[in-house]
Amino acid sequence: MKFTCNRDNLVEAINVVQRAISGKTTMPILEGILIEVIEELKMTANDLDLGITYEIPAIIEEVGSVLVSSKTFGDIVRKLPDIYVTIETSEANNLVIITSGKARFEISMMDIDEYPQVNFIDEEESVTFENEILRSLIKQSIFATADDDSKPMFKGVFIDKEGKTVNFVALCNSKMAIKHTSMENEKEFKILVPTRILNEVYKVLQITNENMSMAWSKTQVMFYNSHFKIISRLINSEYLKYRDLIPREDKLRVVVSTKDFLHAIERSALVMQDSSKYPMVLTTDMDEIVISAKAERGHSEERLPAQVNGSSLTIGFNTSNFIDCLKVIDDETISLHFTTSLGPCIVRGEEYDDYVFLVMPVRLKL
Amino acid sequence: MKFTCNRDNLVEAINVVQRAISGKTTMPILEGILIEVIEELKMTANDLDLGITYEIPAIIEEVGSVLVSSKTFGDIVRKLPDIYVTIETSEANNLVIITSGKARFEISMMDIDEYPQVNFIDEEESVTFENEILRSLIKQSIFATADDDSKPMFKGVFIDKEGKTVNFVALCNSKMAIKHTSMENEKEFKILVPTRILNEVYKVLQITNENMSMAWSKTQVMFYNSHFKIISRLINSEYLKYRDLIPREDKLRVVVSTKDFLHAIERSALVMQDSSKYPMVLTTDMDEIVISAKAERGHSEERLPAQVNGSSLTIGFNTSNFIDCLKVIDDETISLHFTTSLGPCIVRGEEYDDYVFLVMPVRLKL
What we know:
Two copies of one chain form a homodimer. By secondary structure, chain A is of the alpha+beta class. Helix content of chain A is 17%, strand content 42%. In chain A, the strands form four sheets. In chain A, strands 14-11-12-13-26-25-24-18-22 form a nine-stranded antiparallel beta sheet. Chain A has an eight-stranded antiparallel beta sheet with strand order 6-2-3-4-17-16-15-10. Chain A has a five-stranded antiparallel beta sheet with strand order 5-1-7-8-9. Chain A is elongated.
């Protein structure tokens, strides 16, 4: 095997596929990157849960394939002196030779016969998302998943396609997000996609302008564009009737600046040593919303101008649940909808109506 | 006590004095910041080894002083919404009230009577350094100190003033730095100043254009400008006859690009899992210097164009010792001076002659 390629392209490919390498694998073979040169240069990594391939252009002198340590190979390539890099194998010595400018490295091959194949699914059942749209579908849903070892349902985003509308839904014990968009395609399906693959897809969407397609089978989901493929198992779990969680009507409606509200909540958490242990308290006062907190470090209170409609209410929330929501909102102003001090707060944009967030309150000690 | 000041000035003052607060103190009182308002607003922190005060302008309504938790106070002030902040005490409730815009915080006072005074020394024995010059004196010496629990002598910079020349000298088992400059002042003195105070002085020199003075007694050293003071104990230790460590003559002299040499050494370390365990090897070949290494991950070799004068040599070095040296050099090219494969390498600038660095080799296995 021998090829020459652009160093920065190679670094990009390594950075993407390395995300399929888990730092704590017990199988050393999974710390390898598979380099295959046939008609293109293709790099692959996988940890049995997640598999990624990435193709980049190369001047190919000799086809072949080799498995190298992802860490060693990545560390070296990132620091190469020249913009071009030539990689060739010396089969006799079991070595991979990396040259760039006047620098030359020899590293050992890993045993390619031991490497578990990644079986990408075919693309019969598929839909294509515009880059920007898929980014916002992921960004405005994934924050509501849970990252601890909770119910399987909480660890993924439920993609629920009904007619021309696709909903990205995520929820956990304390919050829920529903983000939707309309598509040309009328195919209907419901799949529960693990958080991890969506995080990686999101990162790739940021380094390219290309649109991204999604294909799926009964057990797997794959995202792909012209030079990138990522595959993961689906989560096998029932999903909640999520729309039923949103109250039909509200008793108090508050319109407030998203940024000011976010910053006031962040400040209220400053009096808490551990913000998961203390609530912030929201109340309304004429045309103001009042954010206050009392904890080990002291007491805080901040007033923000707001449009207040309905009966007044005192309600407590965990600050980080609200902060997670507000951070992914692009609208300048939002409306908050309340029922009782034990009912959820519904957050909607004033400008965009393609998302609904729900935040559960915490019971205040009297 | 009551005053109003600019939030960003207050943040700057907190950031500077907080560096005297050790994260692992066993005396909770030393986690406090002392705020004193007399004619100016003065903030102080100390951990018994190091004391810092910083003064900023304020509109003073009522003089007084208070001790607050550095962490709580700092976290709150950094996030305040308005550019102005008013701080007042409520003696009856033992509270400090912080208001800024529509945000208000109440935090508790710490017991000011328990707080150990910082005794700054008077300024009889003192010299003044230009800002830029003191920065480079510190930067080009301090890297050669040792940060582990080694000999006291290795943990400070020896400031050796002879006639009009001041030398900043640092050394440890593997390297030495001598940086000098000339001053108007002819006062002679020798003091061994702990690394820690110089690191903090360096940071303050970066946020101001002001020059910095240094005063000292038999046991203490203080650096100060118009609004900042920092004091520390001196290290009580003999110092080596450091000039004797530099060989009188050399047998090989190599002139090379500083940046290319640095990057080649960094790359050679990429084949090592732990760069402290393997040497890089330097040899010369006609008009090239060859940097190579062999370790667990493989083999590397890089050739750089160089002016080579003298008899050839094969010599090993720990990469990080050389990297530390090269990183603080501003010259585009340097000259490396060698005697034998067990003698030190002397590094000098081609453009500036106000520093000499020494790097000890490691013995190569044959």
